[in-house]
Design a protein that fits this description.
The complex is a heterodimer of chains A (426) and B (551).
Chain A lengths: L37 H8 L4 E7 L23 E3 L6 E3 L3 H4 L5 E7 L6 H9 L13 H8 L10 E5 L4 E3 L12 E5 L15 H19 L4 H18 L10 H7 L3 H14 L4 E6 L8 H26 L5 E6 L3 E2 L11 E2 L3 E7 L6 E3 L16 H11 L8 E4 L2 E4 L14
Parallel strand pairs in A: 1-8, 1-9, 4-13, 5-7, 5-8
Antiparallel strand pairs in A: 2-3, 4-12, 6-7, 9-12, 10-11, 14-15
Helix pairs in contact in A: 5-6, 8-9
Chain B lengths: L5 H9 L10 H11 L11 H13 L5 H9 L5 H11 L1 H16 L9 H13 L4 H10 L12 H4 L6 H13 L19 H11 L2 E5 L6 E5 L6 E3 L9 E3 L20 E3 L8 E2 L3 H9 L5 H16 L19 H13 L4 H10 L29 E2 L2 H12 L2 H6 L10 H5 L9 H12 L14 H9 L1 H6 L7 H6 L4 H13 L5 H13 L4 H13 L2 H4 E2 L1
Antiparallel strand pairs in B: 1-2, 3-4, 5-6, 7-8
Helix pairs in contact in B: 3-5, 5-15, 6-7, 8-12, 10-11, 13-14, 13-15, 16-19, 23-24, 23-25
The chains are: A alpha/beta (426), B mainly alpha (551).
Chain lengths: 426, 551
């Protein structure tokens, strides 16, 4: 249930859609499961590096997760528990993740200084570069441009989210519509992925060739973004038709391991997509905006990420995928140490935590620290620009020498005053 | 072109443009737009481009082939004005406005407390009678279920997902005041100085007493009001403990005193028919008047901005619900002028739409002037016409008309016991829809946004592409039959005539030589499977960007 005190304005793009419409009751056949075989993992090793961004929209409390301060003024009621990293404790709400801590890199000294959702989500996901009069791409669009395979059999940037799906070209910023996100509402493909028997490959090609000719004609002299976006929605449709197997039902054992709730299923779906070769998957979970009743809500919410996240790290470590895939688990900010009158915690960009694991990232490190009461960073502060530099480095892209070129204007791919968090890089 | 334009532009920005009162209003609009265009504007749309656009905007459907041929052949210099008047008077005008405002007001939320028939009837009657916009909005708030004519209005609050007072407050602010004050519920809006928590609760206080109740005799839903006894209390989460109070108050307006009555004296009418008594003090009824008063500039500006958006594809204030100082209108003087004149014309909707349609701004081509890059003609410059995505309803109506099946679908009665649902259909439990309302429901389910999400931007989706590629119903419309366009064209021998027919019926224009030749050669290459080839060509046109965009 959406709590009424959530600050879920339209800028959060919070979908109030029930599971319905195009996305309901999808009955896909039970063909190949799309799961990764060890031999495929070996092949992938030599291939492209990928990213799974798990986004907890609204802001997970650092005090109820990565940076607990039990027994202090703002610590709240939960205990800290030891982890697989000697000497490191995290919240008792994350017992499964605690066991995977030796694979993870946690930053406890994030400081991003923007407490507004309305500007916060796009600002953070665009890496908050210096203002140069252009709209920067989201991280997923940036990496599909920088690292994606333009001839990939699957879209390079997929967004698994609750609610509705669609093609969200606005994520692409100045890169142009085709670098936008293919959003899969509830992680599912639309029912019309099934082609009637009367249309074979040859017929389908014939009709689509004409359509493309007409669009080329129409595009002349017009604003291209809308035509491109429409064209691209068909292109993606064609690609997806060929990969129906990726959306087969999950096995009971998988659901058991990752949790049957939406976030668990969405992480499972994201895992399949990454394993199938998608360059960047962004997996969203909403409702982390706990202005009221913070502790009960975290008691409910944190286990929903703890279980599937830990399972994912364990599985991908075993299969070797973690060597090629960077997993990033974060929100747009943390939550206030001070507990408000509604027993809630509000927005707190001043001192919060995020977690990375996998490709290019050191294993088993907790970097940075906060003051004893958890309110402030007691170390070097890191902005989102540092995170972007770190991610690009981990992907093998040098953000100090790589630039975008937008109509002749050279643009740095990440904030020019920041650099990578060296301690995190393997 | 390299004209020296900067000093001129700068001058225009500094000096408010003088508008001559004697000039037709649409010319005043054009002057204000061109003064800030920042460069050369696009040429006028040609007749075919204009015809298709104005049909879609005012009647919600592409023109018939006959209408295309007649209009293009018409030599009367006044034919555009005549067409606009004809479309405003057509029954399809009321239907189109009903569709557009249902989407805007209900945002695809549905409910059964008030029937769709009552709601549709109310909207269509309002628009066909050209009810003044302020009156229309007043009636929505009054929500008089006892009067058969206005019974449908109750749907706005009762079935619009607005059963709780927070949703009521948020939606009223967004839709009628251009204020997205969601974030101001817990604290003053963090980055919009003008959106205060006190505004939120002031508006909320007008709506706090409203709730639905069933009339036991009529068996219809009423939106009743309870007795208001006290102000609303609130506090900011950033300043807890500092309790504040407010009675009903519009943003920027005066607080309304809540009167106190002796016990037993609160009601003007006693309880009956399962409904509670009618209080003497009914804040929602007051809101109907206060909100729509011409002195409430927010209401007036938000109203004209939404009509402008409907026609021009982008609000002067955009996003539409961010009307505040930190998001100024692209053309402040024009917004003011539109608002003043809308009031002066007593909120005459058809007058406003007619003037907008008559403007050169509306009638510009969507093709950029030679040598002008898209980035230099952003949507808010209105230098070229902004292409709009077809709405789900426009898509359905236009596809049916283009493929030839429309009349048959309209004629087919909906079975009394039809229980068409999208979910059942896509899971193969029921056959394809054959009648109008079920077909519309199918298209809305595929092309519409989820309930509660406004439909503003063009957001093509892969799911929609898959539908157009693989939906059997659509594919059947493109097969030869007695009623389909493809069926008629299969019998036509002359391939050039076929090319003309395809273009006129589907894209509402004649093909150029190259396009015609492409059709001819494709048909020639596929002589042995002519019907199917025609269907493929028609499919490609139907799924082209030219069809999907109202350009």
């Amino acid at each position: 249930m959406i709590h009424s005190h959530h600050c879920n304005s339209s800028e959060h793009e919070l979908s109030r859609r029930q599971v319905l419409g195009t996305l309901a009751g999808v009955a896909v056949g039970s063909g190949a499961s799309g799961l990764l075989h060890p031999s495929v993992a070996a092949q992938l090793k030599a291939q492209q590096k990928r990213v799974l961004l798990i986004w907890l929209d609204g802001g997970m409390s650092q005090l109820e997760s990565w940076d607990p301060k039990p027994g202090t003024e703002f610590g709240g009621p939960f205990r800290a528990i030891p982890t697989s990293l000697p000497g490191i404790h995290i919240s008792e709400l994350m017992p499964n993740t605690a066991q995977q801590m030796h694979h993870l890199a946690v930053v406890r000294s994030m400081c991003t200084k923007d407490e507004n959702h309305s500007t916060g989500v796009p600002r953070i996901l665009r890496g908050d570069p210096k203002n140069r009069g252009v709209t920067y791409p989201y991280l997923g669009a940036a990496l599909s441009k920088l690292k994606g395979d333009p001839h990939s059999a699957l879209p390079n940037y997929i967004w698994v989210k609750p609610g509705s799906g669609g093609f969200i070209w606005q994520h692409a910023g100045f890169l142009g519509a085709k670098y936008g996100a293919l959003a899969l509402g509830d992680g599912k493909p639309p029912i019309h992925i099934n082609r009637p028997a009367e249309i074979d490959d040859a017929r389908d090609k014939t009709r689509n060739d004409i359509r493309k000719r007409l669009n080329t004609q129409f595009r002349k002299g017009r604003r291209e973004a809308q035509v491109d976006a429409y064209d691209y929605s068909f292109e993606m449709a064609e690609k997806l038709i060929r990969r129906k197997d990726l959306f087969a039902d999950f096995k009971a054992t998988e659901l058991d391991r990752y949790g049957g709730h939406p976030l668990g299923r969405h992480i499972l779906q994201s895992k399949r997509l990454i394993e199938a070769g998608v360059q960047f998957v962004q997996c969203h979970s909403y409702h982390w905006d706990t202005h009221g009743d913070n502790f009960n809500m975290h008691l409910d919410l944190v286990p929903q990420i703890d279980k599937p996240f830990a399972a994912l790290i364990e599985d991908w470590n075993e299969s070797g995928m973690l060597d090629n895939v960077l997993v990033l688990l974060m929100s747009e900010f943390g939550r206030t140490p001070k507990i408000n009158q509604r027993i809630g915690r509000d927005h707190w960009p001043e001192a919060w935590s995020l977690c990375m694991a996998g490709c290019g990232i050191r294993k088993g490190i907790v970097h940075g620290k906060t003051t004893a009461n958890g309110a402030w960073v007691d170390d070097t502060e890191y902005d989102i620009g540092h995170v972007f530099h770190t991610v690009f480095r981990a992907m093998g892209v040098d953000p100090t020498t790589t630039e975008y070129h937008n109509n002749g204007q050279p643009l740095p791919i990440a904030h020019d005053d920041c650099d990578a968090i060296a301690e995190l890089l393997a | 072109m390299h004209r020296i334009k900067f000093p001129l532009v700068a001058l225009c920005l500094l000096t408010p443009l003088r508008i001559w009162a004697g000039e037709p209003f649409h010319q005043q609009i054009d002057q204000l737009i061109e003064a800030r265009a920042g460069g050369e504007v696009a040429t006028a749309a040609d007749d075919a481009e204009f015809l298709r656009r104005v049909y879609l905007d005012l009647n919600g459907i592409v023109p018939t082939a006959t209408a295309v041929r007649t209009f293009l052949a018409d030599k009367d210099p006044q034919k555009r004005t005549r067409l606009i008047d004809q479309l405003l008077a057509a029954p399809d005008y009321a239907r189109r406005m009903r569709e557009a405002f249902t989407v805007m007001l209900l945002e695809r939320r549905t409910g059964t407390a008030v029937s769709d028939e009552d709601w549709n009837k109310y909207l269509e009657t309002s628009f066909s009678e050209n009810r003044p916009w302020d009156q229309f909005v007043r009636e929505l708030f009054i929500a008089d279920a006892a009067n058969e004519k206005t019974r449908g209005t109750v749907k706005f609050f009762v079935d619009g997902g607005r059963a709780d007072h927070d949703q009521m407050t948020i939606d009223v602010a967004r839709l009628f005041l251009g204020m997205n004050i969601h974030c101001a519920k817990c604290h003053d809006h963090p980055n919009v100085d003008q959106f205060k928590q006190a505004d939120y609760f002031g508006l909320s206080a007008y709506l706090m007493q409203s709730k639905s109740a069933k009339h036991t005799t009529l068996q219809t839903t009423f939106l009743i009001e309870n007795v208001a006894t006290a102000k609303v209390e609130f506090e900011s989460v950033f300043d807890s403990g500092n309790k504040q109070q407010t009675g009903p108050r519009l943003p920027g307006g005066q607080e309304v005193e809540i009167p106190t009555f002796e016990k037993g004296e609160e009601f003007s009418e006693p309880a009956k028919d399962g409904l509670p008594g009618v209080p003497k003090f009914q804040p929602r009824q007051l809101l109907a008047t206060h909100l729509t008063d011409p002195s409430n500039r927010r209401f007036v500006e938000n109203s004209v901005n939404r009509f402008w958006f409907l026609m021009m594809g982008r609000g002067l204030v955009h996003p539409l619900d961010m009307l505040h100082d930190q998001n100024p209108p692209s053309h402040p003087q024009l917004l003011k002028l539109l608002a003043d004149e809308f009031v002066a014309h007593k909120f005459d909707v058809q007058w406003l739409l007619r003037e907008l349609a008559l403007s050169k701004t509306y009638q510009r081509s969507s093709i950029l002037p030679e040598g002008v890059a898209a980035v230099d003609a952003p949507p808010q410059s209105y230098r070229v016409a902004n292409a709009k995505g077809l709405t789900p309803e426009q898509t359905a109506w236009s596809m049916m008309r283009a493929t030839g099946v429309l009349d048959q679908v309209i004629k087919t009665p909906r079975a009394e016991d039809s229980k068409f649902t999208f979910k059942d259909y896509i899971n193969g439990r029921i056959p394809a829809p054959d009648n109008l309302s079920d077909t519309m429901l199918l298209f809305v389910s595929v092309f519409g946004n989820p309930p509660g999400e406004a439909e503003v931007e063009f957001q093509p989706s892969m799911g929609q592409a898959l539908f157009l590629m693989n939906e059997q119903l659509v594919l059947d419309w493109l097969k030869p039959s007695d009623v389909t366009l493809v069926g008629r064209l299969e019998k036509e021998a002359d391939p050039k005539k076929i090319a003309d027919e395809l273009y006129v019926n589907i894209l509402s224009r004649f093909p150029n030589a190259e396009e015609s030749a492409d059709v001819v050669s494709f048909l020639d290459e596929n002589k042995d499977r002519r019907g199917e080839a025609l269907g493929q060509y028609a499919w490609a046109m139907l799924t082209s960007a030219e069809f999907k965009l109202n350009h």
